[in-house]
Amino acid sequence: MTTVAANNRMIAADTQYCNAGIKSRGRKLYQARDWYVGIAGNVAAGMEFVKWARGSRIKRPPRGDYTALILTTKGALILYENGQLTPTESPDAIGTGAAAALAAMRCGRTPADAVRVAAKIDVFTGGRIHKFVVRPVG
Question: Structural domains in the chain?
Answer without folding.
Answer: 3-133 (3.60.20.10)
